[in-house]
Amino acid sequence: MTYRRYQTTATAVIAAGLMSCLAFAAHAQSTTSNMDGLKLSKDQPIQIQSDQLEIKDQEKKAFFTGNVQVVQGSTTMKAGKMTVLYTGEGASVTAGAADIDKIFLDDTVFLTSGTQQATAEKGEFDMATQTFTLEGKQVVLSQGANVFKGCKLTVLMETGQAKLDACGGRVEIMLDPKSRPPKQ
C-alpha cells in the first residue's frame, strides 16, 4: 500500500463540484424546491486547506483532516474531515489527473455563500448522480432572517431541485416577510 502524508496546509487541485444551493419554501414532513444559492463554478479554481492530507493512491482515496476548508469563488465549505474517492487508471490527486467519484464530509459541516448558510453533521456528494446530501440530527438552512430546519437536505445539482426532510416530525420554517424582494 502506497500513501503520502502532508502536514499543515494542503492545497490540492480537485476539479469537481462539491456543494450546491440553499432552500426556500416548505410544508408538512418534507419540502421540495428549486435552489439557487450555494454553487461551485466549473471554471474557477478550488482551494482546499486542512491540517493534514493523507493520500492512498492504490486505494484511490484522499483524507483531509482537521479544520478542512474548501473555497471556490464566494462559496466556502468547512468540516472536520473530508474524504475524496477518485477513479481512473493511474489517477493521482496530486497530479490533478483524478476523476472524483464521491466526497464525504464529517464532523460538523458548514456551507456559506453570500447571505446563505447551511449546517449539518455530515454531507456526501456523488459525482455520478450529481447529488449532494446534508444530514444530521438537525440540518439548518438560512438566508438572512429566513430559517429552515430538517434532518436531511438532498440537492439534485443538474436541475437545482432540492428536498428537505423532517426529523420524524415536521420541517420547521421561519420566514421574515421583510426579506422578500420588493415588487416591481
TrEMBL record:
Statement: the UniProt record of this protein carries the keyword Signal: yes
Keyword match Signal: yes
GO BP annotation list: lipopolysaccharide transport
Residue intervals of the Organic solvent tolerance-like N-terminal domain: 47-160
GO-annotated molecular function: glycolipid transfer activity
Cellular component, GO, one term: outer membrane-bounded periplasmic space
Signal peptide interval: 1-25
Xref: Gene3D superfamilies: Lipopolysaccharide (LPS) transport protein A like domain (2.60.450.10)
Keyword list, A-Z: Signal
Any Pfam family matching the protein: LptD_N
Protein name, as recorded: Organic solvent tolerance-like N-terminal domain-containing protein
Annotated source species: Neorhizobium lilium
Lineage of the organism: Bacteria, Pseudomonadati, Pseudomonadota, Alphaproteobacteria, Hyphomicrobiales
